[in-house]
Structures are given as C-alpha cells and as structure tokens.
C-alpha cells in the first residue's frame, strides 16, 4: 500500500509539472519548420558540461518586454490641452498635418519586472478648437497600458514654427479627470529642440520622490540654474535661466570714460539686483557689463503680457500730462494737498480725479487710465491687479518676500535724486 501511494504521488506531481510546462510554452514562439528538431532518442552535446560552478541564465529588459508586452491590456486615454498662440493665431502646416505638439506621459511608477522606468506613452496633439478669446484646444489620445500607474510628468515638444503658451492639460483617466497646470511658453523645436517637462501638482519630499521622476526633476533644476546650456554667451529669449547679478551695466565705459558708473549690489549690499544676462564684459572695464539700448533678458514666462506692456509704455504719455494740464499737476503733486490716509490713494482707482470739461483728454490717455461716468470728465486710474486681488496685500509678509525676490529693496525706499543711466 505504501509503495502504491508513493507511485500515485509521483504520477500526480509529474502531471502538474507537465501542465505548468504546457502553460509556459504558450508564451514562446514555436520554432520554424525550417529548423530541424532534435531527433528523439539521441543525445546531442551542444556545449561541454562545466566542471565546477553553475550555469546562470539572464534575461534583458528587451527579452521580458518581448514576452509580456503583447499580453498587457491597453486603454484609451484622452487628453485636452488649452493653449494660446499669441496676438495673431493662424493655422499652420503642422496644424493641418496633426503634428503641432508631441506629448509624452511619464509614469510615476517603475516596472516591477525590470525595476526600471516604464516606457512613456506618446501621441501627436492636433488643434481642434479656436475660440473668440484666442485660446486653442489640442486633442490627443494615448494607448496607455492598464498597469501604467499614475502620471507623474508630461513632456511636450513644440513642432510648430512659432512659440505657444500652454495653460493646462486635462487627462480623462478611468479613475477620473486629472489636470496638469502649465502656464508657460514653449519655444518651437527650431529654437529649442529639447522637450519641456511639466510635473503634476503633487509635491514630494526629496526622499519620497518617485524614482522615475528624480532624474527629470534634476534636469529641470539644472536648466533653471543655467547648467545645461550648450553654449556660453548672452541668454536667448527662449532660455529659462533664473539667476541674479549686480547692477554693473548702468554705464558705458567703452564709449566714454566719463560714462562709467559704480556697481550697485554685492555681498555687503545684496540689493538692488537684476536678472543675469550672460552678456560679455566691457573692454575697458571688465567688472562692468555691456548692454544694449533698451533690451534686457527676462525669462520668457516673466515678461509682461501684451496688455501689461501697453500699459507700461503708456506711462510715457502720463508723464507729460501734468505739463499739459496744470489742474492735474495741482491735484496730484500739490504739497498742500497730501494724502491723509491710504483710502485717499485707493480713491484714485475707485473715484478718480475730476477734470475740466474742455480738456480733450480721453483720446490721448492709454489703457493705464480709464473714463468712468460719461456725464463727468473723470481721470480714473486702472487699479493694479495685486490691489484687485487683495487691497491689503502690500502690508503682508508674502508680498514683502515677493518684492525681495524680485530684486526690489523693501528695507529702504527713497526718492531717486540722481540718475546713473545716461545714453549719449
């Protein structure tokens, strides 16, 4: 009886082994008919048996993907990108071909089989909608593996001929919609062939950052620091270098020694400071930096919008108003009429200043000021966006810190009495 039981166990074990072997054999491609199989009952010595040690079999990532990739179920994921083309949006050749934007989704998880980053899923986004406000919508559809995991980053390559402002991207995932906030200009690949990386809104501590995102975050940080520049020299418009420098470009010693100006800022007095530009030093004074007439490098995302630029330019017209209208000068700079409280300053934006009827002012006033109440001629200033958001923001610590990082010196605000800038 004991021998019979052992025989049954061995037979059952052999049957299980055979079934497992059959299930595994389905994962591999059968050999071609052109290859002669080994004849049964013959022994073939393919390789000499090693005398010592063990034979180790390894599989590369390509081998594992070749076996398993076709068996992974894929789902359709739709993405909608909201963008803005600028002042004169137009349909280009790349829009007609459907290759305006190349979009890649990066997984925040590693592949459990290879312990490496998962392959990104990509698609070309094509413009599908242009509304009256100048905003475009680009649509793309991804074939995403079911086990792709959460999307940790999105990479974009602008294949158009002009820059584009990307606002956000909405992904329609099976678990719900996820929105990635961009709010950034992306240069065309003819100017910048590198892919722009945008991360999800989720924050991580350094030790908790997913492994597939660590290298991407490092590259992004080095780009902002200017370490990934391919060439030296002045920064291009599309570059995103955030660095500070002292004011050593206020003069022009190469043109005339009398136009040399002292350097403002430094270790002992860190303010004021300006954006670093990468321009070459002056020939006669290497501590000073050359400069163009009115051109300054500013990271593209920090430049004025079109409306803000028009408002800023309009200050030149406003500066001439007191000379044209003595009534305005008396209302604004009369020493006997100081602002008694902060509310009187807010009245400039809310109530305005009454003007004479025959002033003929409104045709020459730019968008920085506005007219309210047609019955009365009122000079009403356009309120700053910061004041619209929070009227007490100027006394808060975060606004103080913002001005500090922006290069202003909130510790000591004084009237400028001598100008260091002189162009002859």
Automatic annotation (TrEMBL):
Gene3D superfamilies: Lipoxygenase-1, Domain 2 (4.10.375.10), Lipoxygenase-1, Domain 3 (4.10.372.10), PLAT/LH2 domain (2.60.60.20). Keywords: Dioxygenase, Fatty acid biosynthesis, Fatty acid metabolism, Lipid biosynthesis, Lipid metabolism, Metal-binding, Oxidoreductase, Oxylipin biosynthesis. This is Lipoxygenase. PANTHER family: LIPOXYGENASE (PTHR11771). Residues 203-424 form the Lipoxygenase domain. SUPFAM superfamilies: Lipase/lipooxygenase domain (PLAT/LH2 domain), Lipoxigenase. The keyword Phosphoprotein does not apply. It comes from the Eukaryota. It comes from Brassica napus (Rape). Residues 77-200 form the PLAT domain.
